[in-house]
Design brief:
With about 375 residues, this protein is α+β, with helices and mostly antiparallel strands. It has 12 helices and 10 strands. A hairpin with a 3-residue loop joins strand 8 and strand 9. The longest helix has about 30 residues.
Length: about 375
Amino acid sequence: MDLTRYQAVAVRMLAGIGPPIDRSHVTEWEGRRFEFREFPLPSLILFSLTRLLNLDAQGRGEKIAWSLDATFRDIPFQLAERKSGFQIVVPKGTPEDTLLRLVGLLRKAATLATRSLEGFAKQQIEAGNVTIPSQFPFFDGSYQFFRQQATERFSESATDLHALFDRKVREGGYCAAAMLNAYFSRLEHLRLLVLPFTNFEPSGGALRDYAQKRWQDKLTSIIDLAQDQTAKKFRDTLGKIAGNFRNPISHGGNDKNDTLFHFHVPGLGYLPAHLDTGRITFERFVTPITKAEFEMLCETLDECDALVEQTPLAAGFKFARVCEHVSFSAGFKDQCRRAARSPVALESLIDHHHFIVGMHTNMDW
């Protein structure tokens, strides 16, 4: 990572900020804690001041991730990322306009760090040297929420002629459709989080390419369906649900069976191109997912969740459901692959993961 160009820019852009000076004359200090929205990534400022201006920072301390002493126009100050938030400390009585100018320079420092890291970020993604934060709680929470909402509405809905005028039928369909979308989103996200437990090699742009594949192709990329009939059943079962329900709902009603279209018959009017009278119900005129179909979908999705526990991905799925993030470092992948072969090693990995996350969250070094 060549920073020469940006170091020259930093000298000009951040003029006035320099190394610390003797501050024994300061008898009283005052601090200001920044709102998160002001500096959501304080580490960008640390990067600019240390890597571009060559200032020295102090490492971890009690409830502190890092701190840095410097001066601005001969006024000493300290920056620190603490458990309580990002904070600046200056001598008491520092003029407000001076402090505002300094804060303005810190914003420029964050912007400059962003620009200088853009190329490196792309290189790291291409090489697969990344960490993926887990969004499982969001996708799973969405799935569980809409499933419960659909259950409650369909439990009180009509299935006869009154279904045409029953708000519960419509709302049940809305929630059932949202449930399906959330389920498949959760599935695609889990397919990323389980990768460290497989032999997948993320370098050479492979991780980025994998992330952009369809969910079926993600599965076949990491497991041999010809050798694993359980995984194949999992794929085939979800494939039918996607083809019959999720894909039409997600693509404006279009599907491969032309069920969106109706054809005209002289003297009769128009008829559905898919002449399956078994699927024609009063509910169908209101929602693409009926009460009976919703109940079938819930049962099938539960079966699919049970099936995946019988595949080689079971350990990865278990970890992914409780983790905060996964890494593609060599060390982490080795830990995951050992955990995939031993329930004891898996539990140990989960416990260690929670310990490390707790340590960083609470800054208990």
